[in-house]
Amino acid sequence: MSVRNPLAGAPIRAARWSATHPWRAILGWLALVAVAVVLAAAVPTNTADDVDYREHESGRAAQWIDDAGMSDPLTENVLVTAGASGLDPARAEEAAAQLGREMAEVPGVEEAMAPVWSQDRSALLVAVRLAADHEETGEMTAVTDAVQEEYADLRIRQAGDLTIDEGINEQVEADLASAEGISLPVTLVLMLFAFGALIAAGIPVLLAASSVVVTIGITAPVSWLVPAEATVTSMIVLIGMAVGVDYSLFYLKREREERARGRSTLDAVEVAAETSGHSILVSGLAVVVAMSGLYVVGGVTFNSLATGAILVVAIAVLGSITVLPALLVTLGRWVDRPRVPGLWRLNRRIGRGGISRRLLAPVLRRPVVALALGGAVVVALAVPMLGMKVHSANLETLPDSIPQVVTARDMAKAFPLEGASAEVVVQADAADAARVRSALVGLDEAAARTGDFVAAGDAGIEVSDDGRTTVLDLAIPHEESDPRVDEAVELLRDELVPTALDGLDVEHAVGGGAAESYDSAHHLATYLPIVIGFVVLLTMVMMGIAFRSVRLALVSSVLNLASVAVAFGMMTLVFQHGWFEGALDFTSPGFLIDWIPMIVLVILVGLSMDYHVFVLSRVREHVRRGLPARLAVEQGVTDTAGVVTSAAAVMVSVFAIFATLSMLEMKMMGVGLAVAILLDATLIRLVMLPAVLVLLGDRVWGRREVPGEQVVEPVPELAVSRQP
Q1: Cα 231 to Cα 235: distance, rounded to the nearest angstrom
Q2: What residues of the chain score a pLDDT lower than 70?
Q3: Where is the Membrane transport protein MMPL domain (predicted)?
Q4: Single pTM value for the model
Q5: How many CB atoms neighbour CB 644 within 10 A?
Q6: pLDDT averaged over the chain?
Q7: Strand pairing partners for 339?
């Protein structure tokens, strides 16, 4: 007796109810959107703050400093350097003095420090210390601009804690607005090519966009359980539009196919629910499983991104199996109106699978050769990942289009204390404060002798009011992305600090910007293989349950790993080794930003499983109807080629747009995902997957071939009433 998958009936029941109560389903969805909009307006989002990001040893050090009331106030710095005609020291000092006087009068400024010359006297720095909780920079930048205008022969620029963040946020917003402004029209055009009709093209985009709106509204109250990371909305939009469009595409294509065979709209909707609806449910679960891997890493950033992605996928699945069938029943054959004549004919011709059938023919004739050649290409593209290096983002990875970033880089060169630094934080009894201070003076001298640190002197040591916490601030005379910075942190933690504090009854931790970067990169590098194993194992179990085939689950996992390896290899070639720097308009930092491989991994596995499940489901349909394995593979891949091509084209186009943006994180993610999905949808799913399925034969579906015997599993009878 056949045991049916418990997930199989859910899409059918949902579609049946929606198809027989279309207006209730549509109004229910609109009500959900309205409630989400109200939630977004009424409930403030709990955005993650600095405390939420404190992790590892560096986080412990930051917490000790904060508890002791020793946290540095926010500062803004104004840099005075030579103008076009050179640097007049007297004019520079005059301009700096005026800056100090006028900045001191700005509300929220606690103190404007005396101007300081750089060691080579090529620059003057005016540091402005802000009052606690002050985050307004408008009046300060107005002062800087006014002094620059008065001293046109000099170059006067401002950068600091607040203005750099403002510049980054403005650039990110501009990048995302540009991406969204381009991606929506591109998606609509691709949908027109996929359907050849305006209404059919608009439905996937509309449903995906509404899923995003609902998720953004829901994340406001959810953020009080899981604090919202600043980029979570971008993740929701990216994932929501990708899966929302894909799910609607799968469903619509199958419903139209069944109507073309003569079925009524209701019957076509139920067949689509039983086939594509089930694939959507399994695909959605695969994306959720992949995204849940981020919880393994931990931390506010990945917890927030995982929660947002999982919510938007769940809502997109819900919309695809409820309101979409209702819309299709309500619109009936009007879904194919108005037709775009040229595109309609092209769509009908491509839909018959002529192109894919010609590509598949040699694969099916020579599956061993096809698999070997495909595997060789994958290996060649993946090999560079073996030398992949990761590092946290820093000033060097930010684009030159942000003026404050360029200014901050120049400050770091002229004034090393404004660059990479580490803080040694020691907690002890107040009675031992003098001994701790003496030990840190010795540590400062020993650190300077290594050449990896700049001597701070007695002024670099600060003691809390209660005498229990002592901090030594050590500058590192290297660029933040220089590998020697990480080596300096390791030296400080493993040798210098333990030696200096030997014999003292104290607790210590090394923090500061350099240590935070080190901890973040090493934490992610440690957890990346763990997350890969977690995601691959869970998706393998899920595929085994969904298709009741261990072999198929193993094949799916291996192909997913191949896609991930290609993505990592291409990102390493492009961003670590500098391939296509000119074409993509960036300067290679010599590494990948530490969180990018993790995000690319989960997004890629989740999204590629969409059409993987769709293809396998169609092949299995033909196997159950009694077709031999080779013919079932050919027919299944041919039937789904148009849908897979359209789905992959949407993803590749959107990610390619991200590759053109200025922020390096966006470029890395865009290049990695665009190349991997392009290769995944062509070489892996159109060559390697069919070759493997043919070589494994009927056994991969849990069916044994018996000479002269054909096993046919009857197609279940449709349960909805017929109507013309």
Answers
A1: 7
A2: 1-11, 342-357, 416-419, 702-724
A3: 82-348, 398-702
A4: 0.84
A5: 26
A6: 86
A7: 197
What would the two tokens of residue 521 be? 């990169």
Residue 19, CA distances (Å) to 7, 24, 231, 268, 716 in order: 19, 10, 38, 11, 18
Q: What is the pLDDT of residues 624-671, one digit of tens each?
A: 888 888 899 988 888 888 788 888 888 898 888 888 888 898 899 899
469-475 sheet: strands from edge to edge: 461-463, 469-475, 421-427, 507-511
Q: How long a stretch of residues is the chain? A: 724
Buried b / exposed e along 347-380 (16+ C-beta atoms within 10 A): beebbebeebeebbeebbeebeebbebbbebbee
Which burial class, exposed, middle or buried, applies to 23 when counting CB atoms under 10 A from its CB (0-12, 13-18, 19+)?
exposed
CA distances from 507 to 23, 59, 348, 425, 426 (A): 66, 14, 72, 8, 6
CA distance 400 to 663: 10
Quick one: residue 515, left, alpha or beta (phi over 0 = left, psi -120 to 50 = alpha)?
Answer: alpha
Is the Cβ–Cβ distance between 213 and 688 less than 8 Å?
Answer: no
Please name which of 7, 42, 691 lies closest in space to residue 375, comparing C-alpha atoms.
691
Q: Within 13 Å of residue 95, how many CA atoms lie on the same side as its CB?
A: 31
In angstroms, rounded to a whole number, what is the distance separating the alpha carbons of residues 22 and 328? 9
Query: Residue 667 and residue 584: Cα distance in Å, rounded?
Result: 8
What are 207's two structure tokens?
């449903």
Q: Identify the CA nearest to 243 among candidates 570, 683, 602, 487.
A: 602
3-state secondary structure of 499: helix
H-state helical runs in 352-402: 354-365, 367-382
Residues β-bridged to residue 511: 423
The pLDDT score that the predictor gives to residue 454 is: 87
* Residue whose pair of structure tokens reads 């590192």 in the numeric block: 476
Beta-sheet pairing, 461-463 with 469-475: antiparallel
